[in-house]
Amino acid sequence: MAETIQFHDFITLHYIGKLPDGTVFDTTEEAVAKQHQLYNQNASYGPMTICIGEKQILPGLDDALLGKEIGKKCTVALSPEQAFGKRDIKNLRIVPMSVFREHKMNPRPGLQITVDGQLGIVNSVSGGRVIVNFNHPLAGREVQYAVEIIEKVTDAKKQLEAFLHTAFHIPTKDMRVELQGKKAIVTVPMALPNEFSEMLGKKLATLTGLEEVTIAGKTMPKEVARQEAGPAPEA
User: Fold this and answer.
1) Could you give all domains of the chain from N- to C-terminal order, each with its CATH number?
2) Using CA atoms, how far apart are residues 55 and 58, in angstroms rounded to an integer?
3) pLDDT per residue over 45-69, tens digit each?
4) 117-121, 137-141, 209-213: which has the minimum mean pLDDT?
5) Rg value, the chain, Cα
6) How does DSSP classify residue 69?
7) Distant-in-sequence, close-in-space partners of 45: CB < 8 Å, separation ≥ 6
């Protein structure tokens, strides 16, 4: 009997995201990206490893992969609610022209901008008002994903590397994973608050089945640490 995907399995896969008319809007495959004029030289292409249930891909797709056969290909159709949501008129906002002038931008319909960390597209420009659409570009659209489920990953070192790479965009080459029996020490290239490191370590231990995972962040230079700590108290 074929093995199927279970909750919190680590799975390596390829996918191609399409609209019902066949238009490709996302893919992990470099050749497909180039064929459909989606190629981005700053993007990373190739099979990706995710932890099912952790929503490291589109949540609707993540849910749909439960129970699928490992080593097989499948097609998943998602409704707007399962994919990028419905179009919401509340996500059409008026942005004052002064905001664009402050950033030396000339707004025009179709221009992509980021406001307060949220991506939007200029819908119309009239006088001193600019209407920006903050709905996802594919909001309200049904989508389909062609997925190739390559393999299940059971090696703890690869699981740890994959989770940190996918969840936090840390290049594998910039982290170090040392396994010592059922314990692991993971060194990452940035300083992390102790509380966050402890929470992340516990989560990774649960996901990988290890007894303990310790996250060791990069040590801050002394002068930076002093600045963050503030001036020393007077004697």
Assistant:
1) 1-86+139-154 (3.10.50.40), 89-133 (2.40.10.330), 155-226 (3.30.70.2210)
2) 6
3) 999 999 999 999 999 999 999 999 9
4) 117-121
5) 22
6) B
7) 27, 28, 29, 30, 33
